[in-house]
């Protein structure tokens, strides 16, 4: 393989695996900036992956090639509905955020495999989808010498969209009134309340955005990588997205960058065969690298990478 | 005080009932009979001596992971790494049993139990150490350590202990097993083993430790008020590490018991075992009370073992049981709602709070 072919393979494989993580990690950042810890990202991804697959299988005859793209939206919408459980529990009913998030992680696989068995005659997995999100070549851009073949040929369009989402999210969180208020209720809900900001509403908003993006993230997984749904479709990606969000210091662009880095780590076992120095390294080191890196980063950046001040703290009016 | 004590119990019982009702409604919606399924579940969990043996066998590791979660929780920490600690414990016990198979039986078993629980302890001690000296959130580190454990154990089993192409190690010798013939015979050839008795012993030991010893008092104290404890001269860093170490030792011991008592070998896991989270559920439902943990673990075990017969006698997907379990934890989580509903009932009319 020529160098540019190897680079193209590395780049596109990285992006394919990074895309679900980018969406989900950004979603997590929204929730935590509003003050609600969300360890339920894994569960949200499972629900997104499941609903997208069911939609795709059911409506492929109606929407044709556009089906997987519409499925992403459906995955996001169902993600919102599912995440409302977390929102109601933590914001309205003052539940512990970790317990409620863990409930999402336990409930999602049970519910989705249950429904899969009902919809698909007792089997624990769905059939393979016919229309999936394949690779994409940017017309025109692929003609750019050297960079064109590497960056813009047979690559993942959905990953490029995810990066754009990262930029949009940064703008929304840091440059708009809504974003400022959302972050305010996560830093100091009592002060925000005094200024007339509806704390509950902005926290609901934060959690619902995490449901939308986590659902899309899971849908991307099933619509572009696994191509069906089973109990093992989402296996740790939600926790990896959580790690990416922390590695990215709760910042949407940071989370995006970290997710791409973790995407690279996930794709290395697949592409290491082509890269001379990596052939002899066992896959296990690539598999555990994202998790070890996250711990190391957390330890090193102590005091520098801190979560929003009121992250995980329930706000009870008149209590503080 | 009496009322508070009962309100905890009432909240837990209401949560169980609510969880069962949610499961029943879901079954009704999809055209399955809740009465028939719950009947089969009950029968499958307690119907005969064999089923009871299976249910109690499965309750032992739940008891220990629940106990482990509650010790860390007493010190104010969320150890959600029970699954990873269980996994390294299981791994450690089987490897010891295979490598030192020349030892006499009792020594082999004790050695394997110690090896596995120590590995589990070290695994969560890492999180405790990072928390004590660097302030790193134990929630994040234990989640990360879960996956490190999963991939590392899978790698080690495949690379070093399984025959080429196989996904599991060799079986341990009979003398290293926690299964003893009188318990097997007593329960009509079930997998019931010494693990349940070991778990009960540890429930008592930990209850004594937490209520009667200085170290246990320090753990409770740090959990209630870290600043005041520090001011009172308690070494909070040491206490955090002890609490996390013990928590992991118990989760690791759960892994040993499943390894030596149930599986008899170590195999590759496709995903993280649920047991760490189930143990957390047990502890939460029990309000972290040792006696409560015994009953809560038997309840969850009954749901899991009884749940197996749901799909034997009907077409209902077996996952309904996991939905019920998740719902129960959800209802325990929103105990505020129950407390609001129950408080007025417990108070005499005319008394304001």
From TrEMBL, chain A:
Keywords of the record: Cell membrane, Membrane, Transmembrane, Transmembrane helix
Subcellular location: Cell membrane
Keyword Membrane found: yes
Membrane-spanning parts: 6-31, 43-63, 69-91, 103-120, 157-174, 201-221, 227-248, 255-276, 288-307
InterPro entries: ABC_transp_permease
CDD domains attached to this UniProt entry: TM_PBP1_transp_TpRbsC_like
Example of a GO cellular component annotation carried by this entry: plasma membrane
Keyword Membrane in record: yes
Protein name (record): ABC transporter permease protein
TrEMBL record, chain B:
UniProt keyword Membrane present: yes
InterPro entries in the record: ABC_transp_permease
Subcellular location field: Cell membrane
Species per Swiss-Prot/TrEMBL record: Secundilactobacillus malefermentans
Primary location group: membrane
GO annotation, cellular component aspect: plasma membrane
Cell membrane keyword on record: yes
Record GO terms (molecular function): transmembrane transporter activity
Transmembrane regions: 9-32, 84-100, 106-127, 139-157, 192-210, 240-260, 293-314, 320-338
Coiled coil region boundaries: none
Keywords: Cell membrane, Membrane, Transmembrane, Transmembrane helix
Membrane topology (UniProt): Multi-pass membrane protein
Protein name, per record: ABC transporter permease protein
């Amino acid at each position: 393989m020529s160098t540019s072919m190897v680079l193209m393979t590395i780049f596109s494989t990285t992006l394919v695996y990074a895309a679900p993580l980018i969406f989900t990690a950004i979603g997590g950042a929204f929730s935590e900036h509003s003050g609600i810890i969300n360890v339920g990202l894994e569960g949200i991804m499972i629900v997104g992956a499941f609903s997208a697959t069911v939609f795709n299988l059911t409506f492929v005859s109606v929407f044709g090639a556009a089906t997987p793209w519409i499925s992403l939206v459906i995955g996001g919408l169902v993600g919102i509905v599912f995440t409302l459980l977390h929102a109601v529990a933590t914001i309205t009913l003052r539940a512990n955020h970790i317990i409620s998030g863990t409930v999402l992680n336990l409930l999602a696989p049970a519910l989705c495999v249950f429904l899969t068995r009902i919809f698909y005659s007792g089997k624990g997995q769905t059939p393979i989808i016919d229309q999936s999100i394949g690779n994409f070549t940017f017309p025109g851009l692929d003609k750019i010498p050297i960079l064109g073949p590497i960056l813009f040929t047979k690559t993942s369009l959905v990953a490029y969209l995810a990066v754009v989402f990262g930029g949009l999210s940064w703008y929304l969180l840091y440059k708009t009134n809504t974003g400022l208020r959302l972050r305010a209720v996560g830093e100091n809900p009592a002060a925000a309340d005094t200024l007339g900001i509806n704390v509950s509403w902005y926290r609901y908003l934060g959690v619902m955005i995490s449901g939308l993006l986590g659902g899309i993230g899971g849908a991307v997984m099933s619509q572009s990588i696994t191509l069906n749904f089973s109990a093992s479709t989402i296996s740790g990606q939600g926790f990896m997205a959580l790690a990416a969000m922390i590695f990215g210091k709760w910042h949407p662009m940071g989370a995006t960058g970290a997710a791409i880095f973790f995407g690279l780590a996930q794709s290395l076992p697949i592409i290491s065969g082509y890269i001379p120095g990596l052939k002899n390294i066992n896959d296990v080191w690539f598999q555990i690298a994202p998790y070890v890196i996250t711990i190391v980063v957390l330890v090193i950046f102590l005091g520098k990478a801190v979560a929003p001040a009121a992250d995980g703290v329930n706000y009870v009016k008149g209590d503080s | 005080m009496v009322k508070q004590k009962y309100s905890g119990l009432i909240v837990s019982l209401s949560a169980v009932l609510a969880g069962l009702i949610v499961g029943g409604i879901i079954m009704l919606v999809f055209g399955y009979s809740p009465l028939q399924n719950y009947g089969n579940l009950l029968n499958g969990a307690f119907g005969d001596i064999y089923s009871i043996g299976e249910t109690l066998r499965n309750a032992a590791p739940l008891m220990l992971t629940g106990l482990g979660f509650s010790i860390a929780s007493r010190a104010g920490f969320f150890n959600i790494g029970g699954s990873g600690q269980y996994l390294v414990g299981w791994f450690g016990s089987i490897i010891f049993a295979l490598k030192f198979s020349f030892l006499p039986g009792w020594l082999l078993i004790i050695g394997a139990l110690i090896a596995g629980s120590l590995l589990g302890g070290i695994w969560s001690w890492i999180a405790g150490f990072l928390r004590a000296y660097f302030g790193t959130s134990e929630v994040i580190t234990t989640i990360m350590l879960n996956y490190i454990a999963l991939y590392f154990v899978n790698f080690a089993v495949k690379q070093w202990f399984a025959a080429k192409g196989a996904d599991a190690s060799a079986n341990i010798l009979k003398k290293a097993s926690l299964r003893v013939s009188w318990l097997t015979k007593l329960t009509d050839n079930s997998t019931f083993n010494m693990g349940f008795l070991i778990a009960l012993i540890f429930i008592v030991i930990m209850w004594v430790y937490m209520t009667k010893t200085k170290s246990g008092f320090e753990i409770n104290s740090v959990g209630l008020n870290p600043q005041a404890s520090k001011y009172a001269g308690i070494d909070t860093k040491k206490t955090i590490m002890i609490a996390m170490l013990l928590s992991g030792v118990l989760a690791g011991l759960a892994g040993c018991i499943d390894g030596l008592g149930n599986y008899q070998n170590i195999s590759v896991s496709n995903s993280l075992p649920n047991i760490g989270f189930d143990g957390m559920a047990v502890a939460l439902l029990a309000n972290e009370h040792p006696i409560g943990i015994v009953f809560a673990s038997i309840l969850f075990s009954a749901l899991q073992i009884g749940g197996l017969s749901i799909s034997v006698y009907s077409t209902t997907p077996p996952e309904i049981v996991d939905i019920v379990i998740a719902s129960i934890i959800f209802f325990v989580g929103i105990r505020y709602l129950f407390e609001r509903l129950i408080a007025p009932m417990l108070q005499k009319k005319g008394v304001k709070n």
